[in-house]
Amino acid sequence: MTVSTEDLTRVALGQGHIGAALTLSCAAHWNQSASDWRLMIGQGGGIGLEDGNGTLVASAITLPYARDVAWISMVLVRQDWQRRGLASDLLVQCIEAVESRGLIPALDATPAGEKVYLPLGFVPIFRFQRYELDLGKPAMPQGKGDPSPDPETFEALAALDAEAAGAGRPAILADLVARAPGAVCRLDAPEQGFVLARPGRNAWQIGPLVADSVDGARRLFDRALARAAQRRVFIDVPDGQDAFRRHVEAAGFSPQRPFTRMYKGRDRAFGRPELTFAVAGPELG
């Protein structure tokens, strides 16, 4: 029996939807964990669609950052509800919500998604490549490593991230640090740089990685990789960081798939993108 989309109910995603949302991202073979969903729902505005049984069949998230930009991600539709326009409808609702607040909608698109977003007014800003490595076994058990940065150190870390990204996101960084404090690596003054990492459902995600030099970025990457707490490791490297990319490849990483960072209503990057050697991931920007 065919069920009409009119039988779906729009809902605001809350903490009670984490399990159902995780089921959606698992079905898509994405890397997000329950902790990622908890962060995104808690810090952003999530919308979803439920069927007549109260089962979540589609989702989308907006994450407003300080100043000018808001991130759109986690646009997911359960397989049996795909090709009915649900993803496009949710995306338009997210765009309208973001623009009503005077913010620029931003997202990271797969090649297939880019074709959908271009007619909606999104503009390619830069591309990045997801790299993957199978370590065979974790380099370090979770929970081992350095303690969490003190408040002054974290403030400096968040300020450098805001300079690179062009928008502050201290609450998101604080959540990532709290989840994997032993994965935090920093450069000593006068150099500036840091890297964070976090556990995912399928792989350990390295990023963001921000540094004021390629040499510093290489050293941060080496330290972060040595602290990986899962056998599979992901890192998302912007195009243009060629020297750093070669260092990642020399460590054994292989390209998995490309993404394109896109903005609607703006044709250039915020901040100082040359400082970013690894993004936080398509769900966080």
From TrEMBL:
<dbReference type="Pfam" id="PF18014">
    <property type="entry name" value="Acetyltransf_18"/>
</dbReference>
<dbReference type="Pfam" id="PF00583">
    <property type="entry name" value="Acetyltransf_1"/>
</dbReference>
<dbReference type="GO" id="GO:0016747">
    <property type="term" value="F:acyltransferase activity, transferring groups other than amino-acyl groups"/>
</dbReference>
<dbReference type="InterPro" id="IPR000182">
    <property type="entry name" value="GNAT_dom"/>
</dbReference>
<dbReference type="InterPro" id="IPR041496">
    <property type="entry name" value="YitH/HolE_GNAT"/>
</dbReference>
<feature type="domain" description="N-acetyltransferase">
    <location>
        <begin position="3"/>
        <end position="140"/>
    </location>
</feature>
<dbReference type="InterPro" id="IPR052729">
    <property type="entry name" value="Acyl/Acetyltrans_Enzymes"/>
</dbReference>
<dbReference type="InterPro" id="IPR016181">
    <property type="entry name" value="Acyl_CoA_acyltransferase"/>
</dbReference>
<protein>
    <recommendedName>
        <fullName>N-acetyltransferase domain-containing protein</fullName>
    </recommendedName>
</protein>
